[in-house]
Amino acid sequence: MEILVLYYSRNGATAGMAQLIARGIETVAGCQARIRTVPPVSTVCEATEDDIPAEGPPYASLEDLDECAGLALGSPTRFGNMAAPMKYFIDSTSNLWLGGKLAGKPAAVFTSTSSMHGGQETTLISMMLPLLHHGMLITGLPYSETELLTTTSGGTPYGPSHTAGTDSKRPLSDEEKLLCGALGKRLATISMALHAHD
Ligand SMILES: Cc1cc2nc3c(=O)[nH]c(=O)nc-3n(C[C@H](O)[C@H](O)[C@H](O)COP(=O)(O)O)c2cc1C
User: Fold this and answer.
1) How far apart are the C-alpha atoms of 171 and 177, rounded to whole Å?
2) Does 171 sit in the ligand 1 pocket, CB within 6 Å?
3) What is the pLDDT of residue 195?
4) Which of 131, 74, 54 is nearest to 97 (CA)?
5) Is there an atom of ligand 1 within 6 Å of 172 CB?
6) CA dihedral for 135, 140, 144, 145, sign (positive or negative)
7) Which residues contact 16 (CB under 8 A, 6 or more apart)?
8) Bridge partners of 3?
9) Best residue for ligand 1 mutational test, from 6, 73, 114 (most atoms within 8 Å of Cβ)
10) Which of 78, 156, 163 for a ligand 1 pocket mutation test, highest count of atoms within 8 Å of Cβ?
11) Among 15, 119, 145, 196, which lies 20 to 30 A Cα-Cα from 53?
12) pTM for the whole structure
């Protein structure tokens, strides 16, 4: 069973979270992570990016979304919201929406910001909105993940988060790492349970 970990990252912070979430997914027997990214968007609207990125995971296709058993969606925070390249990709999913292809699949969200109070929760909640329109089943993190109570960096019940600092170079804290792994594991466990009832 494959869970799609789909993210955009400019400076690597959200990419690092994606890797940890993928590792969490793969702690659940029978579950595999499929990691995908999206290209940046250009101010020249006709501009197109190569089909294969120079480095990192491949660009996501609509088939990746159609085929996955669950979705972890990640984006850096941009002015308290998800980054345009991720929104642009999501805006291309109308046919999946029309066909109800994502309805009933579990989904979760994650983000990275520069500053502690720079809008992690608003970004996470706004990323949930299009997924709810698709009929996806949103999960966050329960406080039984006790790092939620002790973290002095990122980590929210709405999904894992990271406070990367103004230069975006601060490494993930132990709590942030553990919460990424916990989210991946939770998503994979829910996907397996739902699949058992197919
Ligand atoms: C246009 C723009 C807007 C941003 N808006 C915010 C913001 O609202 N709050 C914040 O804390 N950081 C903001 N940032 C910083 C990024 O969220 C932060 O550097 C993030 O960790 C980058 O993730 P990445 O390394 O995956 O690209 C912004 C950065 C850019 C370029």
Assistant:
1) 10
2) no
3) 85
4) 131
5) no
6) positive
7) 162, 172
8) 33, 70
9) 114
10) 78
11) 119
12) 0.88
Question: Nearest 10 degrees: CA dihedral of 187, 112, 156, 171?
Answer: 100
Classify 70 as helix, strand or coil: strand
Q: What is the DSSP letter of 182?
A: H
User: ∠ CA 70-76-78 to the nearest 5 degrees?
Assistant: 125
Q: What's residue 44's pLDDT?
A: 59
Pull the structure tokens for residue 77.
Answer: 């925070």
Q: Can you tell me which atom of ligand 1 is nearest the CA of 77?
A: 17
Positions in the chain short of pLDDT 70: 42-50, 197-198
Q: Whose alpha carbon is nearest atom 16 of ligand 1?
A: 113
CA 159 to chain centre: 9
In the chain the beta strands, taken as DSSP E runs, fall at 2-7, 32-37, 70-78, 81-82, 106-113, 137-138, 161-163
Residue 150's alpha-carbon distances to 123, 145, 154, in angstroms, are: 22, 10, 10
